[in-house]
Amino acid sequence: MFEKVLIATDFSKHAKKVIECIGEMPGLKEVLLLNVISRDPLARVWDPVSEIKDIEKKLEEEKNAIKSPGVTVNVKAVSVLEGEVASAINKVAMEENVSLVAMGARGRSLIMSTLLGSSSRNVLRFGRTHLLIMRYKTLDDNTMEKYCARVFARILFPTDLSQTSEVALSFLKSLKGIGEIVLLNVVSKGETDEEIEANVALAKERIEEIAQNLKMAGMQVSSKVVVGQPTEVIRSEAEKEDVSLIAISSQGASAIKKGRIGSTAYDVANSASRPVLILRQEKMAAY
């Protein structure tokens, strides 16, 4: 389903590694390499036309990182005012009708933390296209290489057992190259031990039913129900299960309808140590 992918690059070493990884994605047919230039507030003179030409030459060189046969690679450079990079990425994604936007968690910033860079964070918050954030701590610990070749090999899919999660899981099943899905439900409600135990029992029954349906469709599936705070449990289980990807619906049952991303999906994407795939509800509705 991810046949046309937009990769937002700032020419950092992390962005280059994302380009290499996406070139190996199953079912990929077309890649659009995009660089967004913004005016330096300290610059007295700015010639965006000349800069775009220079950037397009660099993008042409970046194309060589995608070696997969049969994949068409195009390039695009646009200029914006300071602070509008994410808006430009989202706009191009809509205009080009891409099926996925792929980005590194961080760009050229020297400030390293567990949080996303500003451009990735704003694409996450305001974008309407499915988003893959290739997160890794450094390029020296082989983390990226570990998940690059088979990003869909072992997927953790957190579900709150809502209709929105059901739609996201149905879409996920249509993707090529999926090896195994680990279903996870986090029980975070209950006033007493008895109430929590009842919620856990109900969740186990429902999630096992979902797992059995997936197995009948020929998929390799396991399921877990864990008590705790959703974001913390998802991050912890991703490490315990050593998954190659966390795939999560952009909105859960409790998300505010006017918002484009729920708090759990946002927090997971903003802090997980594994690649995260955000499945947008409005995109899946169209599908």
From TrEMBL:
PANTHER family: STRESS RESPONSE PROTEIN NHAX, UNIVERSAL STRESS PROTEIN MJ0577
Entry protein name: Universal stress protein
InterPro entries: Rossmann-like_a/b/a_fold, Universal_stress_UspA, UspA
CDD domains: USP-like
Family membership noted in the UniProt record: Belongs to the universal stress protein A family.
Gene3D superfamilies in alphabetical order: HUPs
Highest taxon of source: Archaea
Lineage: Archaea, Methanobacteriati, Methanobacteriota, Stenosarchaea group, Methanomicrobia
Residue intervals of the UspA domain: 1-125, 153-280
